[in-house]
Specification:
Blueprint lengths: L1 H7 L6 H52 L6 E9 L2 E11 L5 E9 L5 E10 L2
Antiparallel strand pairs: 1-2, 2-3, 3-4
Length: about 120
């Protein structure tokens, strides 16, 4: 009788089991694609912010190397890093101590989206 019982049992997977397995695989793949897209977006953002920091650093270092006490005011600048043009604004403000000035370099992309603000204090030489 055991042989007869074995012959009656269905072999393989049912349609419901196959559909459930396909649904699990589809959800897993969709999650993986979403994670890969997020990693790509983060890498792009990191590249933009790093290049913007180079632009801001160059502007602030130029002020330090000039060895001149900067006047208070705003100046616009552009910078090309990694083949991409960035727009910036150099903002010089007084501090409570008249021998120091605060310099802020605000960098944005071509569309005007702010990427970075870098600040330093400049002293009278």
């Amino acid at each position: 009788m055991r042989r007869a019982e074995r012959a009656r049992r269905p072999r393989g997977l049912t349609l419901i089991e196959v559909l459930v397995a396909l649904a699990i695989v589809a959800v897993t793949l969709a999650t993986g694609i979403k994670a890969a897209g997020a990693l790509t977006g983060n890498a792009q953002r990191l590249t933009e912010v790093t290049a913007a920091q180079w632009c801001a650093d160059n502007q602030l270092t130029g002020l330090k190397l000039a060895k001149a006490f900067p006047g208070v005011g705003d100046n616009d600048f552009t910078c090309v890093q990694l083949g991409v043009e960035y727009r910036g604004r150099l903002v010089i403000r007084p501090t409570p101590n008249p021998n120091f000035r605060r310099a802020d370099a605000l960098v944005s992309d071509v569309n005007g989206v702010p990427l970075l603000t870098l600040s330093t204090i400049l002293s009278r030489y």
